Amino acid sequence: MVACNSRKIPDKWRSFMFPACPLPPEQQRYFHTLSRLYVIATVTYVLALLPMFWLLGNVHLLAITLIGLGSVLMARELHRRGYMTAGVSLVLAGMTWHMLESLDAYGAGVGFELYFSVILLIIYISAMSPVAKLGISLSILTLTALQVIELGDRTNDWHHGSLVPDLVLMANLLLVSVLFAVILTGLEGVTERLERSYRREATHDALTGVYNRRAVLKAAEQMAQGDRTFAMLMIDIDYFKRINDEYGHDVGDRALCHLSECLRLGLREEDVLGRYGGEEFMVVLNSMTLNDAVGVAERLAALVRENPYAAANGLTLSMSVSVGVAVSSQAEDLNGLIVLADQRLYRAKRTGRDRIVAKDRPVVSPNKEDPLPENPLPVRMQGVSRFG
Q: Locations of Basic and acidic residues compositional bias (predicted)?
């Protein structure tokens, strides 16, 4: 399906933000969380670790830091291509090597052992299996513990009275604290954003962006519990199957998006529009009499009729809709109201299409040509569409 309501994002920025291949929903949280992690790691290497070892004059650790930076950039590309476990494993290997070499050079007591906690955090927010997480954590813990026990506190190796060990310790404490705060804050932000996205996906149609069947029926149930009369419109696109057959489902999907936008333009904010199924839409109008509801239906039908869909190839497809109208006072319950509106929609389709039925006979029957003839001819673009 074509997502018609997505924003246009530059290709270069999209390639950095989004995966190169579609990911299942359960992996999207890992992808976005680790994407932020790679940015944080890159900034840490460039702005913190490289200057630190340059000031300390340690060429060996400066080279390891550059290798670690390269591994992060390589891991980011693996991650973007969907190899998330391989990417995070590469970063973890680089960070562990960097931590052990730093401990070997300066010993415990100046804060390099604190990076084990950051490594542990990264392991447990990754997409690895629980067994892999436990095994890798225990392995790195063992290596770190052996290194610390063997080397011990080597701050006495520094020049007597030197403030360098204290400054390095303070720098490492500050850096680890900032890393924890940034990673956890980013994780919380990604989780909240994905939760909002999941909630929207649960109530909105993925193609058109309007409410889905469950959500529009829930809105109708809430109105049915009130004391005010409300109206229901059942709307169906005329000859929509012919559009799919003649131009393909891609054009058909975009035509559905165009139609839903036309319907939205003709409704109030308190009205509810939903895709009931296929090319059929349901509109629930709060505090609406039958005559007023017919007026709304006429306005919606006119909007669709007067705004043909302008396809990307320069063709224009005229469309029309048939509408069944019913109000809550005409039925005993919500199910009866849906059945009544659907029966009137069916009558509108049977009696010629492009019309509105609100009673036992059609109340609107404009003298229009078939919106899509048996042998439709290309027509130059006559209107502007958001989905063209």
A: 360-371
